[in-house]
Protein 1
Amino acid sequence: MDAQGKVEENARLDRVAFLDNLKWFVIILVVLMHLNVTYSGNGLWYYREQASYGPLSGLLFGLYGSLTQAYFMGLLFFISGYFSPDSLERKGPARFIRSRLIRLGVPMLAYVAIVHPLTIWIAGLADSAAPDMAGWYVDYVVSLDFLLSLGPLWFLLLLLVLSIAYAVWQGAVGEPAPAIGQRKPFQVGHRSVAAVAVLIAVLAFLVRLVQPGGVPLFKAVPGNFMQVGFFASYVLMFAVGILCRTHDVLDGISYRFGMRWFKWTLILGIPVWFLGIPASAIVAESHGAVPDIGAFFGGFRWQSAFYATWEAFFCVGVSLGLVVLFREKFNGLGKLTHFLTQNSFGVYVFHPPIIVAGALLVRNVQAPPLLKMYVMAAVLVPLCFAVSHVLRKVPVVRRYFS
């Protein structure tokens, strides 16, 4: 690469550094989410500590779980979608698909072959003795359960499907589109942002008529966390990311506009959430009934429509706000942020056995579950990055987990 090429490449990296920073930030939220599930017992995970806690702790567990679930994975799909057009334009559909199969397929194979079994073995120690791993592994392969045991790497599977669909669609369009950067920029207004949220809400409600949120696809096996009921925002946010790149949308969104959506989403979204699941639970318990929380996650019910709408607007508003916030305030890579960026994908892949092992080490410590979650988060998040850093010193690991 000549001097001019290096200048252009550095300029490009500076422009997208905020998305790299946003990615490691969201991946930290992923680790925290799984710790939240570990200590609250709410959600799908390898190990959930069976501990009782009061209503305030339950409210705080639920608040973090619901608010984070609404936007964090959708934001990762947005980032992935944003980077896809450049790669597709540079490589063409065939090479793009081949590179995605390798880039995403190798980590998935490594996960189902090594990381998932290791996590199962560690989680088995909660029952006083490790399981017969030889017998378990044979059954794991013969039963084809390994096809579903992707753990958090369901993200890569869906991303691979979306990437292939995008490449096939682009290849079938016919006339090549104008080169990126030569297309007419699209100006975003309040109506277009609201339209995306409404589209996500409608699609989520329809999907949950047949596949409720929080229910794994196909059958419940350890490590199957594919919850199609939440996929509506993921698919549409991936598409929005593509459109934002191909039409230079992000450059046209002012900081004030994005932060206004961010501010009002938080100001209105959090109280509205309280009017949903928590208020419903309080009313049900006051009448001596068992709260029907599942009504908010599927079926032809007003609760499901309410939650899908709240979730969609929270997803879009928070995502928009975080994108412009990181673009304006965190658009650079220092030593620390470069380290976090380089190791974030490794953290995403390798964190399950680390946090399960950490939780088991302190499971006999008598402390409120919420406090244990905070303390373990302070210990395990840095540990996950350290482990990723060490593992990535191996060349083949560095190649596929960066």
Protein 2
Amino acid sequence: MLSLFKVVPLLLLAVGNWVDASPSPKPPARFGKSTPIPNQYIVQYHDHVNSAVRLNHLSEFRLRTAASRSPKFRGVTKGFSIGSFAGFHGELSPADVKQLKGSKLVKSVQQDAIIRVASPVFYNRNLARDSNITSNPRPVWSAGLNNLHTVETPGSWGQGRISHRNLEPKNFVYETDPTIVYIIDSGIRTTHSEFLGSSPSNPSPRAVTGFNFAPPNSDSPSEGSSDGLGHGTHVAGIVGGLTYGIAPQAHLIALKIFNGRGEGTWSGVLSAIEWAVNHTNSYNLRGKTVINMSLGSDDIFQPVNDAVSQAVTQHGITVVVAAGNSDLDTGNTTPGSCPDAISVGSSNEFDERSNFSNWGPATALFAPGEGITSAMNTGDEDTASLTGTSMSAPHVAGLAAYFMGLYGRHTPLQMRQRILGYATPGKLTGDLKGSPNLIAFNGNPEEL
């Protein structure tokens, strides 16, 4: 069994484009719609169907369809069980699909889909570092009253923004205590210096790989569980990097669903959610873990929304998701439309809704998302600035981890109430299109 800390974007919401440190970063890629995979399906049972009935149905289905099995139609390939969400993935013939859709036990049969990073960043790894990939010195922090730590020159402007009610001042104020965040993304460069222990006396790595659910990368067959894209490392750095993180002592577990080409599947997302649920339950971590999902699509894939809801309501995991970069209603996206997730839109350095950010009542709040600096996968000291709601979500996932470390276990509802209750109201300007006027805030006691 994996030990607790040794295990510790479909268009990706925002791999974004490389940006300068200029005030007008390039816009990130849009969500787009997922691409169905021929002959591959996700079958979901009705919530009321118990495990014994499901197993019996599966056995009978396998027996009835055994004669039609072939390399093209391999049948059931993996199962899912997340609270009352249960089902399986299969490579199925048209006859199989018709039979399953006719079963009173089956809630839905939906085609699995490829989810891709839009405009993925394929850079030459042999290029010398430039202004977009840099090695930055660590800021000096000091301990103040009430065990507060103050970073006078934060690694990212987003850290300063969530520490204050107003745009000024810009220092980052926080308290420390570790918790666990699952990063469902492209993996994490776990050896990056951002993910070392929080002090010279505690140098143990805080980022580990939990499992690799990504499809093979035809361009790099040896990629394995490493981060071949950089998006996951960047997101993890915003959550818990020593210099750039909102929760600098968080333990980070990579659940890889995107390969270095920026390709993943909905079934991979479901497997990652299930892994996080099982890990949380195995170590009695209910109320102490967070999932960050900086991924999504501009359509509704209900099995994923249902699985997220079960992780939240039945297993006590706070789930934070990116709202999306298409300037559309978050309520028409997955997983942004899931009412049990905390969907995060993007704001800029001027407290404006980013013009690319999705919006609407399904968006819970906004957090910094333009020109955000964090760790990169190209080297153990490398950083980059990226833009998108993929950068906004980990600000809030980091807040959730920070609040758990500070105040102890939270149910997801308690965490949602704390995050929204602390959020700064009325500061966003521009057309919010029905979105709540809330900017994430870390509860800095000097400004409460």
Protein 3
Amino acid sequence: YMMKCYPEIKEKEEMRKIIGRYGLTGKQQVSPIRNLSDGQKCRVCFAWLAWQNPHMLFLDEPTNHLDIETIDALAEAINDFEGGMMLVSHDFRLIQQVAQEIWVCENQTITKWSRDILAYKEHLK
């Protein structure tokens, strides 16, 4: 899939290195995308996004249908991303790994939460 999207990358090994950063190894790297699991397909999408070199990402519930290993790979990719990002998520684990600021939407307002996500989780109880 990635080789079709980026024909300017002539070397298969270079592309394998790129998608390998997102946890796709061996057979997964050369399998048709239809043969990959949902989590593996998400990893291909994240590699594709990174290759686009965007300045800003908007991620809405990006951990839906992902296993823990893929969520950790996503968190690492988010932390390595040099652009701006808005992340909407109910996944406290991901938020704890990546959030620099937390904004809360409730009662038809958006306010900045001054503490960490674990304190917010306690606040919800």
Protein 4
Amino acid sequence: MNRPNHVAPKTLLETLPRDRAESYLNHCSGNSASASALYLWEMDMAAALHEVLSMTEVAVRGAIDAQLQSFAKSHGVASGEWIKERDSLPHLSELRFANGRPLFDHGSLRRMSRKQEGGRTRMHPRSQASTSHGDLIAQVMFGTWGAMLPDKNDSRPQSVQDAINGLWREALQEAFPQYR
């Protein structure tokens, strides 16, 4: 990672909350240079993890979406746009977060759609385009994709777990063939 090397270690530590800076200093026996180096190393590790996590999210999202598009088509949704037609498809309307909120509710989708369209400047190549299926899918949080997958420690109601297991058997297991 390229970053300026001209920040004095003590100055860097002074930008941190006292408790945080002290934890680095204590770990490095009070040596400011070592504590700063440790802090910067942790930043590098977090950045590297974020890069891998971002790629993983795109791969998981793409794999699940492809299977759900096929699932939707097999249930009469010609466009495959399962997210817009989720209420007419088996299992999808029954999916809930642990707090009981639907994974994909109409209000959230409308807000995502408006956010997507409103964020485009006039110079954007799709400034006049309506929100596409891909736009909506890209707005879905990573945790939502995970909430669609079976989990032996799931504490959600049995009806939700049954919907997840049904969706897994009928569509999603093909996205992750190594877990059949």
